[in-house]
């Protein structure tokens, strides 16, 4: 199992029956593959649909039915489409149970940076600022470190996405929960030791007595 | 009743230097034929308001490629390296607005509101220079209405009154923009006789639409 699959499977463990969930583009999209058997989860795509399914077979695509990345999707029975004001009313208005987003950095206070690297990459925030400000739970799905550089840092060096701390950070090495006291190391990836996690993290981590392996 | 016009005639209604809302999300639900006609006309100095700048050669990206755009007010440019390059080179101004805030600013303009209060952007660079207002102990940013000279929309069906329907994720910003511009030009996939679209299915009433573009040939 590679790092991405570990992250996607572990984040899927946060899903609950009948939740409304928004998945960001990229790694977070993989989470939809691991919805537990028998559980019904409604996925929202912020370009205007709840209840979408996999890409249709070749030749059966609808140019008016795509995900937020512009890829073709299908609409499941019971799906619902809407305009951008409604889409973000759902996101900010307390109707979205969970969002899963990628991250560039998370700091000791649980703040996220994920929309630009000054001088290098200016993607824009898209819907990320609304999602972090508005979703009931914000789960970050990201690699623990990038090219040897820590992404879980004492203080953000990149522009923040919101003032509000995220709810949970899931990486290929660990599950970390931001709390008012600081970042708590909750779980380890299979076969990963606490020392390895500490070595890849520059933010201080609170270590509880028991730090079990992730259940995938 | 009104006569549908050609995309070329629609493009002449968009003056150089105008502010132009363009519907679409990653070019899905964008008025592609009017965009092509704007490029062919050689439009200059436009301020584009939309969700994103598409990709090079796709949607609003065609206007960026052709140098028609002086300024873009959008939520995302990550899929268009040309926009990023022109922004860094100072050839184009880019104002990044959170997507939900962009939708609400356009809605506010169309609804006659003086703005909206949103928690989005608190504690970020988006809050710079903006008024923070506390309501019931929670901080909100005051975001002001966003209006344009012209709105260019894509619709699924229209009738000759200009009543519009939209489909699935091609809806996105189109019905919001129909409310927030001086001239509203709609490019439908199909035009049907008046009375064919049931009143409950009309998403944008024809009284809001200034010009209807003919169906694709």
What does this structure look like?
Chain A has a single domain (3-206), classed as Glutaconate Coenzyme A-transferase, CATH 3.40.1080. Helix content of chain A is 15%, strand content 29%. Chain A has four helices and 17 strands. Chain A has helices at 3-12, 84-92, 128-134, 194-199; strands spanning 20-23, 42-45, 49-53, 74-81, 98-101, 105-107, 112-113, 116-117, 121-122, 137-141, 145-146, 149-150, 152-153, 168-170, 174-179, 182-188, 205-206. A ten-stranded mixed beta sheet of chain A has the order 4-3-2-1-5-10-14-15-16-17. Chain A has a three-stranded mixed beta sheet with strand order 7-6-13, with no helix packed on it. A two-stranded antiparallel sheet of chain A has the order 8-9. The longest helix of chain A has 10 residues, at 3-12. Chain B has one domain (7-114, 146-212): 3-Layer(aba) Sandwich (Glutaconate Coenzyme A-transferase), CATH 3.40.1080. In chain B, 21% of the residues lie in helices and 27% in strands. Chain B is built from six helices and eleven strands. Chain B has helices at residues 7-12, 32-41, 60-65, 81-88, 99-110, 174-177, and strands at residues 19-22, 46-49, 69-74, 93-96, 116-118, 132-135, 138-143, 148-159, 164-165, 181-192, 211-212. In chain B, strands 1, 2, 3, 4, 8, 9, 10 and 11 form an eight-stranded mixed beta sheet that branches. In chain B, strands 5-7-6 form a three-stranded antiparallel beta sheet. Chain B starts with 6 loop residues before the first helix and ends in a 5-residue tail after the last strand. The mean pLDDT of chain B is 97.
């Amino acid at each position: 199992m590679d790092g991405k699959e570990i992250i996607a499977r572990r984040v899927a463990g946060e899903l609950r029956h009948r939740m409304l969930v928004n998945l960001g583009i990229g790694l977070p999209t993989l989470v939809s593959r691991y919805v537990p058997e028998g559980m019904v989860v409604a996925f929202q795509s912020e370009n205007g649909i709840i209840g979408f399914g996999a890409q249709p077979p070749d030749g059966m695509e609808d140019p008016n039915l795509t995900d937020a990345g512009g890829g073709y999707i299908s609409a499941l029975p019971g799906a619902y489409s809407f305009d951008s004001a409604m889409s973000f009313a759902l996101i900010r208005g307390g109707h979205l149970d969970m969002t899963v987003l990628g991250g560039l950095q998370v700091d000791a206070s649980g703040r996220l940076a994920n929309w630009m690297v000054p001088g290098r990459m200016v993607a824009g925030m898209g819907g990320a600022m609304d999602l972090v400000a508005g979703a009931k739970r914000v789960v970050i799905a990201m690699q623990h470190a990038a090219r040897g550089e820590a992404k879980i840092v004492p203080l953000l060096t990149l522009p923040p996405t919101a003032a509000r701390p995220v709810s949970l950070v899931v990486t290929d090495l660990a599950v970390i929960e931001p709390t008012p006291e600081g970042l708590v190391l909750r779980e380890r990836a299979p076969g990963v030791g606490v020392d390895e996690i500490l070595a890849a993290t520059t933010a201080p981590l609170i270590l509880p007595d028991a730090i079990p392996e992730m259940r995938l | 009743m009104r006569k549908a016009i050609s995309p070329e005639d629609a493009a002449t209604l968009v003056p150089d230097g105008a502010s132009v809302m363009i519907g679409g999300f990653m070019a899905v639900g964008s008025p592609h034929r009017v965009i092509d006609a704007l490029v062919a006309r050689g439009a200059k100095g436009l301020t584009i308001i939309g969700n994103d700048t598409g990709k090079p050669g796709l949607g609003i990206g065609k206007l960026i490629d052709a140098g028609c755009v002086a300024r873009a007010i959008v939520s995302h440019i990550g899929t268009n390296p040309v926009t990023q390059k022109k922004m860094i080179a100072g050839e184009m101004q880019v104002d990044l607005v959170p997507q939900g805030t962009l939708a609400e600013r356009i809605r506010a303009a169309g609804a006659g509101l003086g703005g909206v209060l949103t928690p989005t952007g608190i504690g970020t660079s988006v809050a710079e220079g903006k008024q923070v207002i506390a309501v019931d102990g929670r901080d909100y940013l005051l975001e002001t209405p966003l209006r344009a000279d012209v709105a260019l929309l894509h619709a699924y069906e229209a009738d000759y009154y200009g009543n519009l329907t939209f489909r699935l994720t091609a809806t996105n910003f189109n019905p919001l923009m129909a409310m927030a511009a001086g001239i509203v030009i709609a490019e439908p996939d199909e035009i049907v006789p008046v009375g064919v679209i049931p009143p409950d299915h009309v998403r944008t009433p024809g009284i809001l639409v200034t010009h209807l573009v003919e169906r694709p040939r």
